Structure formats: structure tokens, C-alpha cells
Amino acid sequence: MAAPVDASSLTPAGYVLHHLRSMVSKDFGHHIPIVDFSYINIDTVLWSVLMSVFAFLFMFLVARRATAGVPSRWQCSVEILFEFFASQVRSIIPGSSKCDFVIPLSVSVFIWIFMMNALDLLPVDLFPRLFSVTGISEYQRIVPTADVNGALGMSLGVLLLMFFYGIKSKKLGFFKELVTAPFGSKLILFIPNLVINVIEYSAKFVSLGLRLFGNMYAGELLFMLIALMGATAKIYGCVGQFFAGLLWAIAHIFIISLQAFIFVMLMMIYIGQAQEKH
């Protein structure tokens, strides 16, 4: 059980660093390792699972209340998403029979990532303070996509989908292409071909996750800097915090939607590329 932390006693740098630290499965004290697979960021897992449940309940309730007559606003919104992503999937992935699962997957992933990103609009001190007061933990980051582990975890899922659809489409030809494309099928070129393909898949995996993480991390950091404006005793600090936070929150609505859209579009492109024959 962690003792509550008084945020007012922290320096500006300490305040930001405190809010950038995750609730982990074991205590590291003041030392935070760069890479350590022996611990879990509990807050990232907790909020990502919670948002996936909310996304499922949202889709379930919309489907239960769907009608062939005049649709509700939520039903209309979901139908627009389905139609939009269906047209994108069919234009990117060859063969309509291969799109049956990718279309609902794209809509679900978009709504899930949007909900996780939208957590950034909540006050930055709200949940860390609640968890600290209850004695659970003095650290709590509620935006899973602002954690590099969460973002790379989602891109790992896309990588596995690329392998799945590549093998499903090409059968053993998928493994053959790993050592014969792009330079040819000569035996001497097997190693260079394999290295190029490993680099290509690794670059897609890393760039997909880091793109989402970088944008959401920057947005989260800016909210923290705006929150620091209210720490001043002057009235203009509080007023500046209110208007700056309001303007950035309005702009951030576009950003969180755009980042979810970009992730899903790249997912479609990568799955389509995995099924193309070289």
C-alpha cells in the first residue's frame, strides 16, 4: 500500500515525472529500468481492458436497439463507420471474400482506440489522486496509448494478423517469399532476402506502435504542463489554465480521432500487403 503523495510539494519537473510513472506490479523505488519484462504496467492493462469492455457494450447496445426504420443517432454513426471502413477495406485488400472479418475488426479497433485516447480528456490529477488517497498506488496513468508498452502491444497484434492473413492467402508460399523476395530465388540470395523481409516487418511493427504512442504521449504531456499553470497563486494562472486547457481539449478531440483512424488505416494496408504476391 502506497502513502498518498502531496502534489503541491512537488517541483514542476517532479510533478510531470510523477504523472508519467505507471502503476507497476512491483516496486522499483527511485530506479526505473528502461527494459524489464518481469513487471507489468497494471494501469495500462486495467484501462485498456476496461475500454475494450465499454467498446463491446457500446456496440452490443447499438446492435440490440438497431431498427430497419428511422435509426437512432448512435445507430446512424455506427452504420456510417461500417460503410466507410468497408469501402476502404475493399479498395485496399484484394478479393472481397477476404474482407469479411477485417471490416468489423477495423470498426472495433477504431472505437477501442478512440475510447482509450479519449481518456486523455479527463483531468490529469483526477485518477492519480483517487488512487493515492485510497492507498492503492501513488502512480496512475489512465491513457494506455500514451504508454509505449500499450501501443507496441497493439502493433504486435497487427503484426500477428499480417502473418495470419499472409499464410492464409499464400499457404506455404508465404514462407517461400521470405527467402526469395525481393531479389530472386537463387540460393545465394536467401539470406539477404530474409534479412530484408525481417527488417520490413520489424519496421512496420515498430513504426505503427511508436506513431500512436508519440502523438498521445505528447498530448498527455501538454495537458500536464497546462495543469501546472493552475499551481501559481496568481489569478491569471488559473484563468490561463482554464482557457488553455479548453482550447487544447477541443483540438485534442480531432487528434484522438485522427490517431485512431491512422492506426486502423495502416492496419488495413499492412494486412493487404501481407496478402499480395511478389
End-to-end Cα distance: 56 Å
Question: What class would the helix/strand composition place it in?
Answer: mainly alpha
Radius of gyration: 22 Å
Please give the largest β-sheet. Answer: none
What does this protein look like?
The protein has nine helices and no strands. The protein has helices at 12-19, 42-64, 73-92, 102-118, 126-133, 148-170, 173-180, 190-229, 235-275. With 278 residues, the chain is mainly α. Mean pLDDT is 85; it is low at 1-5.
Element layout with pairings:
Elements: H1 12-19, H2 42-64, H3 73-92, H4 102-118, H5 126-133, H6 148-170, H7 173-180, H8 190-229, H9 235-275
Helix pairs in contact: 1-8, 2-4, 3-4, 4-9, 6-8, 6-9, 7-8, 8-9
Distinctive features:
globular, 9 helices, single chain, disordered N terminus, mainly alpha, 278 residues
Short description:
With 278 residues, this protein is mainly α.
